[in-house]
Automatic annotation (TrEMBL):
Protein name stated in the entry: Uncharacterized protein
Keyword check for Transmembrane: yes
Lineage: Eukaryota, Fungi, Dikarya, Ascomycota, Pezizomycotina
Main localization category: membrane
Organism of provenance: Trichoglossum hirsutum
InterPro entries the record matches: Mpv17_PMP22
Keyword vocabulary terms for this entry: Membrane, Transmembrane, Transmembrane helix
Family according to the record: Belongs to the peroxisomal membrane protein PXMP2/4 family.
């Protein structure tokens, strides 16, 4: 889980960097594109005013944030045993039998989404905010701004994924399937968390 969280955050940070780059108009040189000037162009008029030879950091794509990556990996490391125990509880409470497999799968998904998903998401935003150095006000703001939209997005994504996982995906491929979707979900959470910081 820690590695998957790290991969997801790296994907999210890459998406953010690509977005920042594509905001610029293609083909139109930006005032901070001194690095892109070819050597033979150096004798031409300097496109930047004196004192602005180094681009302003607000105009450049963000540098890779290794602390953010570490926070995501730490969260995954902490949550892995909790999620493992939770899925064991679900499998004992709602065993999948041949005759009642769909009903048990639906009960599992409903219980997971109504109990674990809201609590897990609350833990995620609380952990990330505290790890970023935020206090009670920052946590309250995070919940006010991004908790409900993220919870709604989770309700749209995970029920169909889990039903498909429990009913269609062969058992040996269930963990890789959910892990792959989990990378996408964690990347979404990373982007959501970072957008609130901005």
């Amino acid at each position: 889980m820690a590695v998957l969280g790290g991969i997801a955050d790296a994907v999210a940070q890459s998406i953010t960097a690509i977005r920042k780059r594509t905001v610029r108009k293609p083909g139109v040189p930006h005032k901070d594109d001194l690095v892109a000037i070819e050597i033979h162009e150096l004798d031409k008029k300097n496109p930047l005013p004196p004192g602005e030879l180094i681009p302003a950091s607000r105009d450049l794509p963000p540098s890779f944030d290794f602390e953010r990556l570490t926070r995501f990996m730490a969260y995954g490391f902490i949550m892995a045993p909790i999620q493992f125990k939770w899925f064991k509880i679900l499998s004992k409470a709602f065993p999948l039998a041949k005759g009642s497999g769909m009903v048990a799968a639906l009960k599992r998904v409903a219980c997971d989404q109504l109990v674990f998903a809201p609590v897990g998401l609350a833990c995620f935003f609380t952990f990330m905010t505290i790890a970023e150095g935020g206090g009670r006000r920052a946590i309250a703001k995070k919940f006010q701004d991004v908790y409900l939209p993220a919870l709604k997005a989770g309700f749209m994504l995970w029920p169909p994924v889990q039903i498909l996982n429990f009913r269609v995906v062969p058992i040996q491929f269930q963990l890789p399937f959910v892990s792959t979707v989990g990378i996408i979900w964690t990347a979404y959470l990373s982007l959501t968390n970072a957008s609130d910081e901005a």
